[in-house]
Write a structure and sequence with these properties.
This protein has three domains: 3-81 and 213-295 and 439-500, 3-Layer(bba) Sandwich (FAD/NAD(P)-binding domain), CATH 3.50.50; 103-210, no CATH class; 297-433, no CATH class. 31% of the residues lie in helices and 19% in strands. The chain has 15 helices and 20 strands. Strands 8-7-16-17-18-15-19 form a seven-stranded mixed β-sheet. The chain starts with a strand and ends with a helix. The structure holds flavin-adenine dinucleotide. The site of flavin-adenine dinucleotide has 36 residues, from helix 1, strand 15, helix 13 and helix 14.
Amino acid sequence: MKSALIIGGGFGGLITGALLAHEGLRVRVLEKNHNIGGGLQSFTRQGVYYETGMHILGGFSEGGSVRRIFEYLGIMDQLRIERCDMDCMDEVTYLSTGDNYRLPQGREAFTEALCRYFPDESEGITRYLQACYDLTEEVGIFYLRPSETVFAIHSDRFMQPADEFIADFITDPRLRDLLAYMNPMYGGVPGHTPAYIHSLINVLYISGQYHFRGRSQHMAELLSSVIYEHGGEVLTNQAVSAINIVDKQVESVQTVSGSTFRADYYVSTIHLKALFPLLPAGALPRAYINRLTEAPVTYSAFILYLAFKPESFPYINHTGYIQDDYGQIWNHNEYDAATWPRGLMYLTPPTENQGPYAVRMTINCIMSYDQVKRWEKTSIGHRGADYEAWKREQAERIIDKLERVFPDIRQCIKNYTTASPLTIRDYYASPQGALYGYSKDGLDPARTLISPVTRIRNLLLSGQCVNLHGICGVPLTAINTAECIFGLNTIVNKINDYCNK
Ligand SMILES: Cc1cc2nc3c(=O)[nH]c(=O)nc-3n(C[C@H](O)[C@H](O)[C@H](O)COP(=O)(O)OP(=O)(O)OC[C@H]3O[C@@H](n4cnc5c(N)ncnc54)[C@H](O)[C@@H]3O)c2cc1C
């Protein structure tokens, strides 16, 4: 029985580990934190639990790729997720004009709603959505199709900057802005983020949007249970501090606690900027390290977690986006002390047995790392009174903005807690608190092109830095990584065979 050691017990490490264990490897996952999960971790404050990262899920509709992977792993029926309202998965409100858009799930309903709001743009809307779906067809793995070639040739639109892609179909600047409302879900940068990323994320959620029912942590625990079931283990408080290389192969890894672990294969799922310092000099080509050390990462966020007084605030079964005005969706990370946050995303995550009232609300506001740079040398729990005061100020600004849509919300709040880009940086070891790994650039795609294989023969890569991030991107990369060991299309074919039975 061959073995695999996985560095990082976040979503990428656990799902790659689960796939490898399912294929017969003895898997051991090493996680630096006290809890597994990374972006799936939940935490509790004053008796209320919250999700640290992932909230909005896609790919779980009947036949969806993520659903099929979870079915193949045998854990789909235990997963607790809730589909958002079919007639409104996302509600987008512009404060400047009071415009409010309620966008349903499903391609047809989504198209019809947009055409109702912007009848003069109907033809462009239909063509734009067709173009989005066409781009997703170029990414076979998105639909769990076996690859026919190792390198795919793409259309010109594939790498076109997403904002320009939208503008090619749509004339009305308000609609151009609205069609980019999911930007905070992929960290898009105008003139750079490729249209294929915009399309994959939009199509993923239009096809069906879900939230966790209860703690996101339970997804991590289900994946961990697959690893245990196949004889593996997931160890916490095991921060990898060094990777030892002998004869161009990993020989062992060491952890801060002083333990040494050995395996046949090693898979790193941590950010590459966090991986490089663990390797001895010369283990990887200097040009590779320089390229990926200098490549930009996506922006970060400030997160406000509200706990509500009992039966005070209604449960809302969709995600909401509040924007100050049109024309700002691509620039939310540009901080302006007077106007921040220019936009926010909120949801009331479903909690077990909650009834018609919400227990909690999570509000994500894009924020650049520069805003917390002055505290970057501090660590969790020791950042000082000025940092705490600054966080309270940001929280109050967010509540002020929420009051513009929910006038009574302040009276409903029992207490709140916050997370800043530094929290994200330190919990996940994510450089600059980046939400989604590297920032992809359609004008310079080679800069962040990362293969799951490395020049170190038995060291593979997985996790959100390799391809796409999130609930769909990370599992698809996990398949790619696992297939580096078992052979191209082996796992995709097995998943399809299993699910077609
Ligand atoms: C605030 C936030 C909100 C998000 N919202 C969504 C959403 O709604 N929907 C969505 O699809 N995606 C969302 N994402 C993205 C999603 O969470 C990530 O794409 C996903 O978690 C990435 O998985 P990963 O394994 O690559 O990284 P992570 O989940 O971050 O896991 C990396 C793990 O490695 C561990 N680690 C780091 N260094 C070491 C070391 N030296 N030794 C051992 N372990 C180490 C970390 O502690 C961590 O547990 C969100 C992310 C954030 C931060």
